[in-house]
Amino acid sequence: MASGGVEDEWAVLMRAAIEGDANAYRRLLVSLAPVLRTVMRGKCARLGWDGGEAEDIVQETLLALHLKRNSWDVDRPIGPWIMTIARNKLIDARRRRGNRSTLPVDELADILTTEGSDDAMDRGDLDRLLGKLGERQQSLVRSLSVEGRSVRETAERLNMSEGAVRVALHRAIKALAALYRGEGQ
Amino acid sequence: MKTEDLINALIADLTVSKMRFRWIFGGAIALGAVIAAVLFHLLIGVRPDIGQAAESARFLFKFIVTIGLAITAAGLLSRLAIPGVPSGPWRWAWLSVPVLLAVAVLAELVAAPASAWWPRLLGSNAKYCLSLIPFLSIGPLACILLALRQGAPTEPGRAGAVAGLVSGGIAAALYASHCTDDSPLFVATWYSLAIGVVVLAGYIAGSRLLRW
After folding, report:
1. Which residue of B has its CA nearest to A168?
2. Are residues A114 and A143 in the same domain?
3. Looking at this predicted complex, what is its ipTM?
């Protein structure tokens, strides 16, 4: 796991994020993602899975860390909290994959191109689940994520209030987590 | 969707967090205990001879085991509710309650003549005990499970079962002040059964409600 220095920095950033500091939160997530990626690639390699699967689990882990951030006790080290959540998401992914039939042959090419490349290319778990949400929720989430718009821009574009956008986004994120959960059963 | 895109969405969803889990958890146990206590006083209340009873070691012992169970189980649950927190001595602390109870049962067997064992074990309130303890547990169990949803227990079933222990302990402590069966033989049999029902309910509810 990460060294004490990085962990301390994460703890500082998370405390600031809990107080509502979006810049600190961005720095935290941007710093966390590559570490989680390395961890998950290592674990997935041992399971015979490719980097795309690893990236899917990284995304699911980030979603869980986000939704469960209030459970972190600010007086405790943040490293074990993060890594336990990550491990849990890996376990969920294994369970889900056990339920899923084997990969279709035509995806083999994708796997081969993904392998060896350093790009963090996911296999689209999140997109697939996003596709199960309502159309309006989908375009709202895409606007705030892939299209990189701010809450205000999204509100104007969708003809909603900023508050309504925030509420809808939070619902969508919780719905995505529930969809991950549903597939794990 | 790339991970960087997901991060954008998560940042847009950042809100100032109102309540830390620790406070929610403590508040839920307190609220659950208040609900159970109010129900208890409305329904049955303490036994009329409570002043006299308070001088009996057998009567007081009932509170040592029930309140002891609620406290030790709550300590364990506060660890199980948060990822990456080692349980430490809390993992075993609650087991001191059954051990204590077993010692009390042995002492009772020594102190009481064999002819009294069976009547004391059966008591006169077994049916009440078996129904009232689970009933009084409903409030605390619901409050604690709702609070745990704000946490992130890595083993939902286990966390639910321990929530059942906490709730059962609270309910049993209240019921103990009503019940006139004070023998450890009665407590070990019927209280354990009644709390076991609550633990089972907690396990089932936890497995379903606490996944994340």
Report:
1. B13
2. no
3. 0.86
